[in-house]
Amino acid sequence: MTELVGKHVVVSGGGSGVGAEIARQFASAGAKVTIVGRRESPLAGIAGQTGALPLMCDVTDRASVDKALLKAREINGPVAVCVANAGAAASKPFKRMTADDLAAMMAVNVTGVFNLWQASLHDMSENNWGRMLAIASTAGLKGYEYVSGYCAAKHAVIGLTRSLSLELAKTGITVNSICPGFIETPMLQLSIENIVGETGMSREQAANALKAGNPMKRFIQVDEVAAAALWLAGEQTASITGQALSISGGEV
Ligand code: NAP
Questions:
Q1: Binding site membership of 165 for ligand 1 (Cβ less than 6 Å)
Q2: Helix 148-167 and helix 112-127: axis angle, to 10°?
Q3: Widest distance between CA atoms in the chain
Q4: Which of 2, 11, 18, 132 is the most buried (most CB within 10 A)?
Q5: pLDDT tens column, 110-156
Q6: How far apart are CA 66 and CA 199, in angstroms?
Q7: Residue 150 annotated to the active site
Q8: pLDDT for position 1
Q9: At what angle do helices 112-127 and 62-76 cross, to 10 degrees?
Q10: Architecture in CATH of 2-183+221-247
């Protein structure tokens, strides 16, 4: 994909799981990649593998995002593609959830996307070109039990995507969300451990219970999600905006 050569791509949560694979694929396509996250060591590991610029940043804190992007711009130039991938999924029955639990889900999954996208907008507007992407979830398109805060937050990301795409429709900047089903990453391992702890199921039974929702009866792989991000960042998808692309084996 030669059109990505030299373009500055920022990926939040680029130290692990989906974000790490997105960083790998963009770097392989010749992009200048910046990865941001809170923990130094995973970021350094992926930076070592890909040549990406690792920067510490908490996406829930706008000042932290602005500081990271200032440094990123100094080294990699104006942001052309912004992949708001950082997220977290806490699981609890609704009756035990607190307002703080809900606020924590909204902070990382919604405010985190808002902060990164808004901080990237100026560069994209100046260039009359840009790609805003969020890694949302099938939880943005349907409900799942025991993760109502996460589902509410991911539904909000889809709303943000649809509205912002209309505001930016005449600017050369597209805005899209990618909605994977359960993906084999550290986050999924936490979900499996949670089910094991709450139900007494074995790890295999818990994994099978999650796979059962996917008509293909398997987990989504990180390279499948990253390939969609690369495609949506390309030139040929200039007319695709405001979409929530399901990567879920037909689950939704
Ligand atoms: P993961 O490996 O746990 O990755 C989450 C990443 O987000 C980590 O690198 C983490 O890094 C970063 N992060 C979390 N809070 C942050 C914060 N406040 N500021 C900056 N970075 C933060 O899980 P993953 O599965 O790859 O998740 C990536 C995205 O895919 C998430 O948005 C998730 O909701 C979505 N998704 C996952 C699944 C799944 O089944 N795994 C399914 C659908 C959608 P630090 O901890 O170092 O900050």
A1: no
A2: 20
A3: 55
A4: 11
A5: 999 999 999 999 999 999 999 999 999 999 999 999 999 999 999 99
A6: 42
A7: yes
A8: 67
A9: 40
A10: 3-Layer(aba) Sandwich (3.40)
